[in-house]
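User: quick one, fold this
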Amino acid sequence: MLMRSLFSIILGVAVLGMFGFSQSAFAAPFILSNGPGDGTLSVGVDGFGAFGLGVGPDSSNAIYDPVGAGGSAGTSFESAIAIEIGTGGTRSFLTSGFVGISGGLANPTVMPDGSSTFSNSGLDFTLSQTLEPVFFGGSQTGTLLIQTYTITNPGSTTVDFELVRYLDGDLFFVNSNSVDGGGRLIIDGTEILFETDSATGSSTSTNYVAIIAEGGTEPATNRYEIDRFSEPFPLPGMRDRIIAGTALDDTVTGDGGDADEFIDAGPGYDVTLALRNTFSLGQGTSVVYVTKTIFGTGAPEDVEIDPPIELVGGIILPIDTMTLLIAGAQINAFFILSTLALTGAFAFGVLYYKTKRTN
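Assistant:
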């Protein structure tokens, strides 16, 4: 009886794993959370990696719990990546919601481990989305959202394309409006664009959100821009210029005459951030693109982030990536676990049957 019960339990676990873990998908938005506690985050993402208060029902605001006094608050109105195939055309945001007038795609299934797969513009994407703590001086001072895209060209010709990471942050820790500060930093070779709760003329701030984009080529020009969400009518804001295919101007609006690349102390504005990477992907080849979002307390220049590793062929794979890549494919850990359990159940059943026959 004991062996029969054990066999039933193991078989049940295997069946649940095969038909529950590996096949089930979470209802949108998929929630990533490492809370509660200081420096933690809760954010709803869609299957393309988009999030924010204004994107749509498959995503949600990134709610950050700052270190020290003060409660959790929202940080993000819109966040997504835009793609352009070739040069000289328009860009399209990858999201099931909308960033401006762009988006409206069918939401990919998001698996329990936060992974998803989709195809767009003749390219195949595998996306991994994870959270990791950010430390300074041994203490957690924030959370890092890591979104790793493995992009494969299944076609017979080379595809040239670009990705633009866009973030419209709205920080409401100090004030109740969307007037913020920010700037640009290079830390150990890593380029960081950040937004703070107020314009102080420096990187020192109580709470901030920042973006990083790695992979492919980081162009010398048309690489970054920090500018207003909207301009006086009829001029387009940065979001609309991204969709139109306008080049990024490699400036920090509001920096003034100095060279520190921080929005000068003063009233600030509704800050948006953008980073552009370019790619040339040959037939049947893959590349890894990683965009990171830092939600932190303190100074952005004090954040401790692992540097990327250069692999053969110029593919960048960060040290902290939790994705297992074999020939450009991601293996679902839940599927592996359930397969092992099913194999164990089969072996146990054979042993039980033989024992019954000898008895």
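User: anything notable?
Assistant: The two ends are 13 Å apart (CA to CA).
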